[in-house]
Amino acid sequence: MGVIWDKLWFELWHHKVRTALAALSISIGVLSLGFIVGLMDQLTPTWNQAHRAVVPAHVYMRLSQPVAEDTLHALRRIDGVAGIEPLNEVAIRYRLTPDEPWQNGVLMMREDYAEQQYSMLQRKSGAWPHRDAVGIDYRTADLLGLQVGDRVLFELDGTDRALPVNGTIRYHFIASPEFGFDAHFFVDAQGMERFGVHDGTFQQLMIQVTPYSEEHARSVASAVKDRLSSLGISVGITHYNDPDEHWAQEFFDGLALVMHILAVAALLLSVVLIYNTLTALITQETNQIGILKAIGARLGMIMRLYLAGVLIYGVLALLIALPLSTFLTCVMAGYFLDIFNVTYATCQGSPRALVVQIVAALVVPLLVALWPVLNGARITVRQAIASYGLGDGMGGIWFERTIDRLGGHWLPAPMQMAISTMMRRKSRLVLTQIVLVTAGTLYLIVMTLSSSIDLSVETELARRDYHVQVAFADDQRIDQLETLLATQPHIRQTEAWFSHPATLLRAGQATKEAGAGTILMGVIPDSDLYRPRIVAGRWLLPEDDRAVVLNEATAEENGIHLGDMVTLDLGDLGDERWQVVGFYRVLSVQPEPEHVYAPRAAVFRTTTRYPVNHLLVQLHSGDPAVVDTMTRRLETLFEQRHWDVAATRTVAEDRQFFANFFDQYIPMLLVLAVMTAFVGGIGLMGALSMSVLERTREIGVLRAIGAQTPHLMGMLILEGIVQGLVSWLVAVPLSFVVGRYVAALMGQVLFAVDLEYQYHTWAVLFWLMAVVVIAVLASVVPARSAARISVRQSLAYV
Amino acid sequence: MQPPIIEACNIIKTFRVGNADVPVLDVLSFSIQAGEFVGIVGPSGNGKSTLLNLITGIDRPTAGEMRVNGRPIHRMSEDQLAAWRSTDVGIVFQFFQLLPALSLRKNIILPMDIAGKYTPRERRARAMDLLTLVGLADQADKLPSMVSGGQQQRAAIARALANDPPLLVGDEPTGNLDSQTAQHVFALFDKLVAQGKTVLLVTHDQDLAQRVPRCLEIVNGRIARDERLTRDRTAPSTRSLVSAGV
């Protein structure tokens, strides 16, 4: 190895800040790519394996009435049915102490826990439930602080019934309870009898088809439904599961898309940083390149020398990024898998992530460096020694003259100097600005996404002009309900609806087909208490007969248009054709059957029944204490009359549910925004550090004519601040223009909701402060270096 | 008679300034024989350094031919020129231009590495010999920033001699040194000429210019004077240079 390589080592070691900046610039892109590829590689196989491990049922059906074993036997003989396992699932209410309000929960029963076939429950601790003990979802147990042996109070015929917990169970198809999902409990058949479900009868079916395909599953589901229909049993809800794809795959795909976009953005920013750093480095080394050429070094040798340097930066970046990305991957994979209820045993390295990081750390910088290195190495000895640095062709002198003229008139001397030195390397300025503007724009877009979510939640909740919603387990008479409520204090207005599971069949679809599972809501058309947001057509009118308003997404999925006639199959209540008069859009963040709204009177006429099972209550005061008191009072009131309440929910709880859901993501996006801000800071620090190195002689001259440390530091910090301010001026309008589209896209991709757009104006001010702080912090290290330069050093500098 | 080591024929060099071509060297022809010690003098901005750059292949003539050691360097590519410079010419700059990252010894080894001349062991030994020649053996492992300007310039001369080139070229090699140190450095060149090297120096120093056997004066891009002088050959020896501690 020749002494030329000693120069390389010396430069790497001697210019530690420069080496660190170059390695950091590369490592940012490497880290982002490695983290995201690693995360994808951890998540996809882990949770798909977890999904396959529970042998998911291909079809899940909720029936309008229980069926017995003989019916199941008949259904199992249907062509294409590989097997059917029944279960029961009922809404219950529970609490831990008699003083607490009731909480909504779900009680699930499997016929034989030891012989489960499909969508299997997995025991985490203790024993399977039996007649006098319940199992509990293991994460709900953690959340509630329950252990095996503890007791839970269940609402049973208006009284508390304490049942011990004898085991914790994992149910694959529910997300983290921290999202706000209802607690799941498990009982055996005898235990379920207490809750009104007779042993040997089942209201839900899990069906496996053979051979599996989505189309075949739908066809078999239609055949099952047809057979049930012939027995007078209707199917309320039908779900389909891909046996090889986790139930949250759609969400995950959206997340993966956003993450990949961010990773590519991080890599591009990294590429800009690398290019900027290397161009500056080569510029700084121009004189030495000239010397090397003067003593005989050729283009190839010089290129090899500097590309080897780049390779070393890459190796250093890899050493920084590799452990960090592995750590982040493991932490975030654990976080996401926990959200989606997958046990994460060990964090395994991803060979693909390793390869991607090696390529991003070693190959990408070499490719990026090729042009500046070639450009620098091609410089002639005369150019290198006679003039310092490469020519910079960007911009025009008119621009500088204008800046000078304006500066001369309006700007104080230090700021004028800061601007003119900033303009000296226009290509570097542009690249640094790209990094800072991207960071600022991303931050503002993330904040706009956050404020759009807030607005969407507020808009959605503003449509709910009631305070409490009560769902009855059974149908109730309107007159009795109204008479009872009329005597209660604090109530301003009530409204009773009728809901019934329905299958939505578009024109031409036979009733026996599976169709789309929905809930028909018979509502009061001129109600003040709730009206969904209409996005096409119109809302219901009092004079409407068989008119329905559908969810926009459901209509789109099923190819239903305004004015179309659709069939609502209500099972035992018959099936009729209804005309679609409008489409609504609702902010919904959990998979649940969509509502089909129809005038209550028309539903009554069609079904020739006049009950209600859904109640909206508006109180005189929205004070949380009043709402809470009234909710409990109503629950007690209904219990006393043996009107079984399936669930109560206040608007405040809805708000909390939304908050729980979105709060999982906003911090993650903010972390990404902060990371981009960090990248911006590194970019700015790199640019200013290079600027200091280039201006060593000039700084020495300033020192020689009396410039003191505060002058020099102030000049550099001011230059950083000017750069930060310029980037802010560009990022704000840019984020305003593109934020609408990006926030809408991210809303769709991440949450599958159409968000109301709201630009985050406070974030603009915050980013202004942040960019100034970033600029100051990024300038401090180079400014301190500048302040340490002595006159002797600067004049000795070549 | 041997062919000249440098042969310039109708050299024209212009630089573009704005929209105009400004002539710097204007139809200039001369030749220099091997073993000559030639000084190039003249007012600032009249083309001395440009001429030196053309002789070393650092720059190219706009028109005309430049042959050095029989090679038509005006026709050579940048890489060919670099390879040629590594073996055929040693350059000494006004500001020394040593690589700050390398010790004096490694700065001298570097041209040998680049040229692939000598074995690694020979390179190290030769570097020490050259440092001894210029009186810097005891400073061999110091970085350029740790020694004086005169010492840096002597190291630069040693580096120029690394590959034993027949031609040594200096652009104001004493311009950045005090007069006593300049005298000593000049003496070193004198000694090299005595050993058979051809030395070509650009200098402003009239005293030194009077001591070179041949003086080319460039005025307005033309050779205004080409004189062979009778000079006082009382230059100090290398031994005295070392003892002077320059």
**CATH class category of chain B:** Alpha Beta
Number of structurally distinct domains of chain A: 4
Number of strands of chain B: 10
Tell me the β content of chain B.
25-35%
CATH architecture of chain B: 3-Layer(aba) Sandwich
Going by CATH, the homologous superfamily of chain B would be: P-loop containing nucleotide triphosphate hydrolases
Q: What best-fitting shape of chain A do the alpha-carbon axes yield?
A: elongated
Helix content of chain B: 25-40%
CATH topology of chain B: Rossmann fold
Distance between the termini of chain B: 39 Å
Number of helices of chain A: 24
- Written as H for each helix and E for each strand, in order along the chain, the element string of chain B is EEEHEEHEHHHEHEHEEH
Give the overall shape of chain B, derived from the CA principal axes: globular
Domains of chain B (count): 1
Low-confidence stretches of chain B: 231-246
* Percent range for β-strand residues of chain A: 15-25%
Q: Using the CA coordinates, give the radius of gyration of chain A.
A: 34 Å
Q: Tell me the quaternary state.
A: heterodimer
Query: What would the average pLDDT of chain A be, to the nearest integer?
Result: 83
Description of the structure:
The complex is a heterodimer of chains A (798) and B (246). Chain A is an alpha+beta fold. Chain A has 24 helices and 20 strands. In chain A, the strands form two sheets. In chain A, strands 11, 12, 13, 14, 15, 16, 17, 18, 19 and 20 form a ten-stranded mixed beta sheet that branches. The longest helix of chain A is centred in the last third of the chain and has 43 residues. Chain A is elongated, with a radius of gyration of 34 Å. About 1% of the residues of chain A have low confidence. Chain B is α/β, with parallel strands linked by helices and 246 residues long. Helices cover 35% and strands 26% of the residues of chain B. Chain B contains eight helices and ten strands. In chain B, α3 crosses α4 and α3 runs parallel beside α5. Classes of the chains: A alpha+beta (798), B alpha/beta (246). Chains A and B meet through α1, α8, α9 and α11 of A and α2 and α3 of B.
